[in-house]
Amino acid sequence: MAHPPNFDPATEERISPAAKTGESLDPADWPAFRAQAHRMLDDMLGYMEGIRERPVWQPIPAEVRARFRSAAPYAGEELAAVHAEFMQNVLPYTQGNVHPGFMGWVNGGGTPVGMVAEMLAAGLNANCGGRDHIPVEVERQVARWVAEIMGFPETATGLFVTGTSMANLIAVLVARDAALGFDVRATGVAAETRRLTAYTSKAVHGCVPKAMDIAGLGSDALRQIAVDSCFRMDLSALAEAIQQDRAAGLTPFLVVGTAGTVNTGAVDDLATLADLCAHEKLWFHVDGAFGALARLAPDLAPLLDGIERADSVAFDFHKWGQAPYDAGFILVRDGEAHKNAFALSAAYLQRAERGLAANSPWPCDFGPDLSRGFRALKVWFTLKVLGTEALGASISRCCALARALEARINATPELELMAPVELNIVCFRYVTQAPADSNRVNDAIVVGLQEAGVVAPSTTRINGRTAIRAAIVNHRTSRAEIDALVDGVLAQGRILCGKESRA
Ligand SMILES: Cc1ncc(COP(=O)(O)O)c(C=O)c1O
After folding, report:
1. Is 106 in the pocket of ligand 1 (CB under 6 A)?
2. If I label 73, which of 208, 240, 325, 401 is the partner at 20 to 30 A Cα–Cα?
């Protein structure tokens, strides 16, 4: 990059501390760097320890936002100066999902264990696409643990990915190639005479139709089956849709069941879906983005019966696994099919019996990424340090809090529950006198709560109406935040409906 117009090479302080050594980008003064790095670690531990004293979220002031519009830095600054800028302009304006009052969307809270493990992974700077090194073995060990947790055989294969959106895409691609034959990777779906169709419920997450689109099958080829009053897939409608498509000469290949729908947390009848898929010879995939890890909670695990018979399961460790973002995972029963859908031979990726190029197959043979970070380490630490029992107990607690919220809503005439509470998601609304005001008032309540910074739910639409949606995913959330949510909704709702004036 050329010097900026105001750059004077003679001005010593414009020269970056790293560039001053001229030898490498490492610090010129390691002891000073170490002291500064310790301060940064301490600050982040302090952030997590004191998270309850902060607002969940706060709007970004215009002058802070403007600071992120400056030109690319030509000369570097001291690490301490950039850290100070981070503390002032980044740390206070994050989304807030570390905070116990965060209930929006479906986001995990992270843990200090995951945070320090992430630092270790960054230090190793491992590229987990392949080759013979222990980080790949750590990922394989986690994959075997996942297989054990989900009730899959040891021969199942697993891979860390960004999130469940990517994991679902991988599942669709493996299922597609298994149905059409792996030559389709070379010939392309456009050359196919068979028209594949897939099935899921209307409560599906948007990433599944997107996966069908990316896979070249088209989102219209995903039949979104009606749901019952509990938002679970209507299985007789599913069977009928499959028969109709077969009669029309189409080729059904995949059923996607959901373990914890994004809107309401409903769990499809996975055991019956497994039976149906076995009978119809269809690939059975489960989107268990957050719900799959409820297998760790003895009181909830029976809800997921049948998941152990799926062909593939997608889920996130960054949700109920509480690992820092991002940590999605795909588990595939038939490891050969998984590999055949992605492996590629290239001279520069030649495998060897010994040396660094040994230890094939490599993670890059099971997904689209070649270069991949060491996501497995933060999950490995989380599982080893916290244990599956404590993680399962925190998942149970989230669901118990959701039931407590449900009970408070049911006991409060000004509030109305909008969907059954099966796991950890509660959809409800403030009841307005004029039904026409309902969406506007409930949207405004949620914005008001987010701006007040005590609790942060989000909204969704249930049967065309705005719902306040509380997804209890954070292990730090307690009864205090549930009560603050109800009290806050009532206070905001009364003000908006003119029953009380603003204090
Ligand atoms: C059921 C379901 N599927 C898929 C996803 C997408 O997961 P991710 O955001 O990790 O890609 C979500 C996200 O909340 C979800 O709830």
Report:
1. yes
2. 325
